[in-house]
Design a protein that fits this description.
The protein is mainly alpha-helical. It has a three-stranded antiparallel beta sheet. A hairpin with a 5-residue loop joins strand 2 and strand 3. Helix 8 crosses helix 10. The termini are far apart.
Length: 251
Amino acid sequence: MTAPEEELMTVGALARRVGVTVRTVQYYDQCGLLHPTSKSLQNQRLYSPADEERLYRILTLKYLGLSLAQIKEGANSDDYQSLSDALDHRIDELERESVEILRNISTVNGLRSQLSASECVHWSEFAQAISDMQNREDVLWMAINGEEYEGSTTSELSHEEISHWHRLMGDTIEAMHDGVQPSDERARDLAIRFEELGGMARALAGLKRLANQRAQGPKQYGRDFYAGIQRRTLGFLKDALEDYHGKTASF
């Protein structure tokens, strides 16, 4: 059904309503993503409220990382499923970006700490420090993905335990973003909580259990439980706990 004439908009009016430039609307038209509902007697391209909704769809999916070709290809797909798939795709990307950012922050903070304790710069030592940090993370990642780590098992975690773990991981991520080092007092408090919850063996057991649940059913258990971020936070907590025990043993 054609929209009533009073509801039709010129390209300029549509651009103003949506908050884009006229050139943007024209570009999507040229790409075959957005066609005017009709033309005026003066050959003006006129757009309907349905065209406006299609423009919002293009902008939303483009923001979520889809290419214009992908948006065009899915133009006739179910809107709910299209948006759901796009959100999943963007979450995957953001998780990967977050892991890399957190990893870089942790590494750079470690190098800053090393620099402050150095009297002069030996580039080979800093390059080796970077390699050591990455190797330590790789070992932990192997453990999370199924390798044995200090006899960890896949025992059950209660809802209360999971809640405590979530809070601890969140507080640890915040501390790492704030530049806290494993030797700091704030890290010590996190390490104590980490140990009280069962330490590394218990953490890996929980991660493996969640991985098994995801493999057996739908996505009700979330995506990858932010595995990459947890790799960094568990590594931080492990270092903080070792530092804490090292200090208490010296007294």
